[in-house]
Structures are given as C-alpha cells and as structure tokens.
Prior knowledge:
Elements: H1 3-18, H2 25-33, H3 46-54, H4 58-65, H5 69-83, H6 93-106, H7 110-117, H8 121-136, H9 145-149, H10 162-165, E1 177-187, E2 202-209, E3 215-223, H11 228-237, E4 251-253, E5 264-265, H12 286-311, H13 323-343, H14 348-355, H15 373-377, H16 384-399
Parallel strand pairs: 1-4, 4-5
Antiparallel strand pairs: 1-2, 2-3
Helix pairs in contact: 1-2, 6-8, 7-8, 12-16
Amino acid sequence: MSHDEDDEFMLLIMAGISIHDRNDFIASHYYKHMYKEPCMASALSGEAWMQEVLNGHPIRCVNAFRMSPDLFARLCKDLQSKYDLTSSDKITIEEKVGIFIYTLALGLSNRDVAERFQRSGDTVSRAFHDVLESVTGRSKGYKGLARDMIAPIDRAFPYIPYHILKDKRYMPYFKDCIGCIDGTHVAVKEQLRYRGRKGIPTFNVMAVCDFNMCFTFLSVGWEGSAHDTRVFLHAIETPSLNFPHPPEGRYYLVDKGYPDRKGYLVPYPKLRYHLEQFENEAPTNAQEAFNRSHSSLRSCIERSFGVLKKRWKILSRMPMFSVKTQIDVIMATFALHNYIRKFSSDDMIFEVLERHPDFIPRDDLADIQNSSSSAINSQTESCTEMKEHRNSIASLIWANRN
C-alpha cells in the first residue's frame, strides 16, 4: 500500500469510528471533499425524462408542466426569442423551462426538483432564476413576458365584452362594464409582517381581470394585514403602476370591501349578495336583484383566481425563497395563466369552467375577522353618479325579471 493509499485508508477507519462519536468532523470532511461517488446518477436524466413526457401522452405533459407539448414548445421559443432566455453548455432552454414550470406546478423544494431532473441544487436554482428573470424582467425594469401578458387588449376599451353581449342576464344592464377587481391571499414564507386576515402569513394580492378570465393588472407585495381599500387606492393613485383606468362612462365591478368611486360599481350594502345566498329564495326587491346579477358577473374574477391556484400549487406551498423572489414567482404564475388562456385552444381546466359557468373553485384560505375594515371603509368617498347608475340598472333588472 502506498503512502497516499495508507493515508486514505486511515481516514476511512477514523471516519468509521467517528460515526459513533458526536464529533464526526473527519467523516464529514471525507465524504464532502474526498469521496466522489456521483449523487445524481439515475439512468433517466432530466433531459431524457422531459423528452419522454413531451413526446408521450399529452396528459403527462399537462400533469407535469400544466400545458400541452405544443404550447410548452411555443413558450420556450418565445422566452428565447423575445425575452433573452439562453441555454448553456450543460442545460438546454427546454430543460430550464421544465425546471421552472415543474416547480411552480407542484410547489416543490429545490431538493425535490433536483432529484426529479437529476441535477445539482445549484444548477436547478440557476435555471429557475434564469427563467424567472425572463418572465418578470426584474433587472430590465420589469420588461419581461409578464408585462406583455398582464395587460388589457386595448386600454381604450372600445367594445362591449362578448361575455356580456351574448348573455341576457347581463345585457344591456352591464354593457359599460369592462372587468372586475378583487383581492386574494397567497401564502408567504415570512412570519410577522405578512400575517393577515387568513391567520397565516400571506401576501394580499389585488388583480383586475376581463371576462375572458385573463388578468389585466396585478398588485403584489402587500402584507396580508393590509386592507383591500388601501391596496386599491395605492394601485389607482400611483402613476408608475400604470393602472388601466376605466374610460369615461365605463366601470369595473368591485365588491363591498372597495370604496364607492366613479368608475367602480359596488353592490348595495347590508343586503344579500353572494350567489349561494339566493339558492333557496329569489331576490325580493330591485336592490337584491341587482346584487345577484352583480355577484354573478363579478364571479369571473373568483373563478380566475380559482383556476390560478389549482394550476400552480406553489401559491399554497411556497418554498423558502426571499420575499422579492416570492413576489416575482406570484407575478410569473399570473403571466403564465394568461399565456395559457390566450394561446391554448383546448386547456382542460378552462374548458370545464366554460361548461359550468356558475362553478367557482373553492379558496382554501378563508377570511378571519379584520378589525381595521370598518375604520378604513368609513374614510372612503362616496360617488353620487355611481349610486344613480346602480339604481338605474337595478330598476331595469327588476322591471324585466319575468
């Protein structure tokens, strides 16, 4: 046995002895720096597994990457050609995007994703953040995929939405409505500042959506304890956020948690509103009839949130990212939601909702009491013009109820 071999043999003996000792420094040093058996040595590499999934039954691709193989290929091409995503000597663009989407879809840790793709944790982390940067464009003033996806088709809103135009429940009553605004909570890995109305740490995320279930504006980063009104006012009053304000004569639907302002139509307070409250008894007056129609039309955004959270499990089990990364991850899920909605003609989740227009996926984060609500609401301004418009719609709905 050579001198070097003898030294290594002695280290092995010492490592074996140290297993039974609290001071296992030598064993740790040996296995970390000298013992070089490959860890990710599966015969099925991440690239091979991806090719198997992408070229296999389409359901496998939808389960793993939440979209069809064709749409996955289109996304990879768009991220490369439009948003500067690049491959490297070790990993292709397709595998980078696969790592990213797989993480969002299942809410997995770095370790779990590394095992699935047979890559080191560092490689997985770099790939994830490369794609996240292409989607959000944080380092380029947020000029990524998200900026192009989360926006109205036409900020002038020149047309009556088709969803309203085709449905006698809403036409002509809500012909001037251009979308809905609401907030939702997303679990966050931060303990104190972000603890809010859900009883657990959350972000309070405000979004605007159109009636095609596409999000047209997003405000994310507020702690869960922030009231919806505060988030809303900051969004519409901060020019740099580029909020898509309603043109003259048009408006968004909002619920009772939002202020009564021009361009934002709230329901009648202190009356039945949610659809389940009307299951056993029809509206008894014009105000309740308005509330039921308002709730039915505004449910579009609740359905959109439901689809978003069912598709992207990371929104309910966020890994241990920094707060900034968590914010970008949330933005990315909204952008990909829109991407799938706009470019997939056969997405199964959207097809189910289109066949069942009154179905709203359940939100697992139920509100608890928030003592600040009434104080904030009492300080908001009232808009006579919107109240008169609401009364006019209510009277028309009630007159045509039969």
